[in-house]
Design brief:
Helices cover 13% and strands 32% of the residues. With 801 residues, it is an alpha+beta fold.
Length: 801
């Protein structure tokens, strides 16, 4: 019977004998062991008919547990045999096989338990197969024991050669490197089983590329074998590497790959000129900045190591030329810096130096990385046109110049060796160019018409110079003719100068500097000359020209007395440099003044009030300014005092401690019908009043009776008017009447007013017996008011009595 424990026992036996490599098997199970024993007991009872359990010795027989790959035999390959002690070779037990490849790759004999492989197997595709086996009753098909799992391993053979998966390879190493310099590492892959035999053990070797390179047999690292390999001698190397399995033994399989090794450049070569002398031929007509030749120094290096810098060695005659570098062609371009002249110099010789732009310090010991060559330039004669002595000409001419007057000239020369004669002409481009003419031989320019500055201030004409022996060669120059304005206005003194001289002035003292103006144009560049009139001999003053368009009035004697002569008039002649020259005579008034010792003005006339005190003008102005400031401060002080007094009076009226009540609001007028009721003036109540006149003791009694039953109508206005007139008369005649310059207005509010009467009309009728005692109950501040009110009432009562 087949059990998992039986498989483990067989595996252990084979491992112990060395037939199989260790395999991981399922762990032993107590349940499996129980099933195995149960099956054996049941089978023993059935076979022998005994009533007790009988121990039966169990045994598996497996001749093989692996299969060789790539089997090419005609018969199926025998793998192994399944057998159990319960099988008595009586064909009562049937063996079955299931799992990976069962029935297709592997088959089993149901009676004997022999397992065979039906086809060749490849370990690289699948290295092992997991199968399940079971023993069953041949007749009933009942399993005698549960399934057991086992593995069939495919045994490797050396059927795959090593392969370089990334080849061919490309590598680079700097030239001039020492021996043993690392180049690269290659790795081959063998798909055979590395754990079985030497099928996957690889050894590397070099088949082609010696003696320049070597390879490590175990690691595949490639290194240089020779030192100082020169790229300029050989740049590309092809190396063939072999990888062989079976440790390189005979019969092993091998694979190869190619490695292309390039020597990278280093700057180990200086530039070199192919010729030591270079000859150039340059026409003298070559323009400045044009290329006149090329030089090239060859450098065996490449890339930036081959870049060359060109320069002209200082000295010799190289200042006429310059050199630039063309990175594309690696050439030095010789450029002309100045004009060549065959008649002055016919050849030039200089040296050009070529040097590396990027130096490698490791190779400086090989020598200087530069080279020189000599350049000889021969100037070729060219038949050139005439050359003017100037690039342009400017001529100034006045607008009143007569026709035919020569105003200027131009000059051109033939610098060639033939020295041909030159003829001149004017190229007429515009009608205004006809204003001028030129002598064809001498080159003198004259006016052909009258010039008008107001019409055209400037003329630009082109003069052509042509060689006589070759009329095709000519040259042009521009002549600018500026038409100048005729000097029409004489110069004048800039301002009417009035000055003074001190009584104690000395000889040669400059008392005034003068200048002049001129209405003629242009103002810039004008020149003025100052002098005294020749016909007048002045013994007191003279005019000294400073040469900068200014002059000074200078004293000629000592001592001036104001009492003798107070004023001097000096004539001054001003002349300009115009054409024609214009002049004018101006006068300068000089006043004699008294001065202090230092020369400061003290007094000239009575107009100077403070000058006799020895005060200057600035001092007087300072005094006046101080007086103005003091007046302003005083006015501000007075204003503040008045404002403060007014505020004090107003505050005293509002102080309740004075016990005086002022009524300033008496209500509106007669037209203000909203402020009070006008009907109160029409009250028909009889009014009686007695007035006591002061000083006389006489009593004036005025009584007006108005019938209460009489209704108040518009006709009552007469009654009111009579009442007011009576009151006016009383005030005029009474002792208590106001002053004559005051205006008293009476109005009667009446008892019907809501706010009661506010006027003084009824104040005389007030009852003197009114009790103001309640004011004392309001507190100490109102006791004083109560006493004043009581005394006032008593006074009124005594007056009435």
């Amino acid at each position: 019977m087949i059990t998992r424990n039986g498989l483990l026992l067989v595996f252990w036996f084979l491992l112990d004998k060395g037939f199989l490599a260790p395999l991981h098997s399922p762990p032993q199970s107590r349940i499996g062991r129980e099933h195995h024993l149960r099956g054996m007991a049941g089978l023993g009872l059935r076979r022998h008919g005994a009533s007790g359990v009988q121990r039966v010795k169990r045994g598996w027989v497996w001749n093989q547990f692996f299969v060789l790959e790539e089997y090419m035999g005609s018969e199926p390959q025998y793998v192994g045999k399944l057998h159990t002690d319960l099988d008595r070779d009586d064909s009562e037990v049937k063996y079955t096989l299931s799992g990976e490849g069962a029935g297709t790759i592997f088959t089993i004999d149901q009676t004997t338990g022999d397992i065979h492989a039906l086809m060749g197997l490849d370990r690289e595709e699948k290295s092992y197969y997991t199968l399940r086996a079971q023993a069953m009753d041949m007749h009933t098909g009942r399993p005698l024991e549960p399934e057991s799992e086992f593995i069939i391993k495919v045994q490797d053979i050396n059927d795959n050669e090593p392969k370089f998966l990334e080849g061919p390879y490309t590598a680079s190493v700097p030239e001039m490197s020492p021996g043993g310099t690392f180049v690269m590492q290659v790795t081959a892959t063998d798909t055979d089983d590395p754990t079985y035999g030497n099928s996957a053990r690889i050894v590397y070797s070099i088949l082609h590329g010696q003696p320049y390179f070597s390879v490590d047999s175990k690691t595949g690292v490639i290194r240089t074998a020779l030192p100082n390999m020169d790229r300029e001698m050989k740049e590309l190397y092809q190396v063939l590497i072999q990888a062989k399995d079976m440790g390189g033994q005979l019969g092993g399989l091998a694979g190869t790959t190619t490695i292309n090794v390039t020597l990278s450049d280093v700057n180990d070569n200086p530039p070199r000129f192919s010729k030591s002398i270079l000859h150039l031929r340059v026409p003298e007509s070559s323009s400045v900045g044009s290329a006149v030749g090329k030089v090239r120094a060859h450098d065996l290096d490449s890339g930036k190591n081959a870049e060359v810098e060109y320069s002209i060695v200082p000295g010799d005659e190289g200042n006429m030329f310059d050199i630039t570098y063309n990175g594309h062609s690696q050439e030095g371009i010789i450029v002309l810096r100045k004009h060549l002249d065959y008649e002055n110099k016919r050849s030039y010789t200089f040296k050009v130096e070529a040097s590396n732009a990027h130096l490698d310090p490791r190779f400086l010991h090989l020598g200087p990385f530069k080279d020189t060559t000599t350049v000889k330039v021969n100037v070729l004669d060219v038949n050139e046109p005439p050359v003017f002595t100037k690039t342009s000409y400017t001529i100034d001419v006045y607008e009143d110049t007569p026709v035919g007057t020569i105003i200027g000239s131009v000059t051109a020369q033939d610098l060639d060796a033939s020295s041909s004669a030159v003829r001149y002409s004017i190229e007429w481009k515009r009608p205004v160019d006809s204003c001028f003419d030129i002598d064809t031989v001498e080159g003198t320019i004259s006016t052909n018409e009258m010039l008008d500055r107001e019409s055209n201030r400037q003329h630009n004409i082109s003069v052509v110079a042509t060689k006589v022996n070759n009329p095709l060669l000519s040259n042009k120059v521009t002549v600018t003719v500026n038409v100048l304005d005729v000097n029409e206005f004489p110069p004048e003194l800039a301002v009417p100068f009035d000055t003074f001289v001190c009584e104690n002035a000395e000889v040669g003292q400059v008392i005034q500097t003068i200048s002049a103006t001129d209405k003629d144009l242009p103002a810039v560049g004008q020149r003025f000359f100052f002098k005294s009139p020749r016909e007048i001999r002045n013994r007191n003053f003279t005019v000294r020209d400073f040469g900068n368009n200014t002059a000074g009035i200078v004293t000629k004697r000592v001592g001036f007395q104001r009492r003798v002569q107070e004023y001097y008039v000096i004539p001054v002649v001003v002349e300009d440099n115009g054409y024609p020259a214009q002049s004018s005579t101006g006068t300068l008034t000089v006043r004699v003044c008294a001065c202090v010792t230092e020369g400061s003005l003290l007094s000239c006339t009575a107009e100077a009030v403070f000058l006799p005190m020895g005060l200057s003008t600035w001092a007087v102005m300072a005094i006046l300014l101080c007086m103005v400031i003091l007046l302003a401060i005083f006015a501000l002080y007075v204003g503040l005092r008045r404002q403060k007094k007014r505020e004090t009076l107003m505050s005293s009226k509002e102080d309740i401690r004075d016990n005086v009540i002022h009524y300033d609001d008496e209500g509106g007028g007669e037209e203000d019908t909203h402020a009070f009721d006008m009907g109160t003036l029409r009250n028909t109540k009889a009014i009686k009043e007695k007035m006591l006149r002061r000083g006389t003791g006489s009593e004036v009694t005025a009584q007006t009776e108005i019938n209460e039953s009489t209704p108040t109508t518009e006709g009552s206005a007469d009654i009111i008017r009579d009442y007011i007139h009576q009151r006016l008369q009383e005030n005029h005649l009474g002792f208590s009447a106001p002053p004559y310059d005051s205006l008293v207005t009476y109005a009667y509010e009446g008892d019907g007013s809501v706010g009661e009467s506010l006027s003084s009309i009824e104040s005389w009728m007030a009852d003197g017996g009114e009790d103001f005692k309640y004011l004392s109950e309001w507190g100490p501040p109102f006791k004083t008011v109560w006493r004043r009110a009581e005394s006032t009432c008593e006074d009124k009562t005594s007056r009435k009595d």
